[in-house]
Amino acid sequence: MADLPQHAAQVALLRDLSNPQFPYSALFRLNWFTPYLLGYLLIYTLTPLLGIVAACKLVVSLFVAGLPLSTALLLRSADVDVFWAVLCIPGAYGFAYQWGFLNFLIAAPLGMVFLWLAMRPSTARNLRAAVLLAGSTIALFFCHALICAFFGTCAALCLIIEARSIKAGILRVLPLTVVLPIAIVWVRRTLSNPAARRPTIWDLNWHNTVEPYYSSLSQEMNFADVGWGRITGLFPRLFGVAPSWQYVIIGAALFLLPFWAGMRLDKRLTHWAPFLVCVAVLLWCPHAIFGTEFVYQRFTVFIVPLFLFSAEWTLRTHQDRFRVPVYNSGPCSRLNRLRRPQVHRVLSPDQRFSADPLAHATRPASSFPGV
What is the pTM of this model? Predict the structure, then answer.
């Protein structure tokens, strides 16, 4: 976590500025109108109890635990088995974690919860839910502006797609727009700083990158066949590793495993919209904007959670995929034959050859002929 020490230093400086005896107070000024405060405030609050090092570790641990939990919440709303949220755990240690983007990491699970809140059916009909969504949008902005922009776009698309008319779509999206005046004021204040007026860098190369650090590293490590481009760098950024074909295989398996378990592509566009927004960001979002670098790369952490959310499952739970009927010879087969008369006694003759009635008519104490 490359940037974590300087984040800890800022928290330590914030504590020093509250000390009247601090001799360098005149050299610094506090800017509370900063749209990435949550991580700093959590560490600042926990430091007196744990010390700054332990506080940083605990806050980062909240992200590591919060990402699969928030993914499970979103998957449950889509009637997807929450077991598959475990596939998000490798991505939690990816690019953003490797660079130590503290506030982005802490806001990431909250962005998933925000999307879940926006897609609840009550949000479209309940005034209280709409007010809650508006307040959550403002709160998410101050957690991290990039997270707010990303999930605000995802939520707006989902709400518009679900609407039955243009008017209904506008009314549904209206709570999300309350943050726009605040964002505009922040952008104008940010652009008044010369450091934020650096040129926007797009770096749209799909195979390699023009970013100085990674391009020089590629030359030093002789990455001739694989690089850190938009496409070739996807799995290295997902896992936080150097480019290698073995990670391409592992990453591909991560996406193919749900298909083997019974997943198929969902026909509902509302479930596809967040994943498509994520893909668009990874392909066409700038590398650097407003003086902030590594913009699109950090959103790789959402590619697996939103991919799972875009799926439809032919099997209700992950256990179903591993249930294999047992009709071979052996003790299990003989046991099944011994238990079948108990089932037949509660079935009519016409039902004995139907699997569904057999399953429904079996008493709790009886064994179904299969495992």
Answer: 0.80
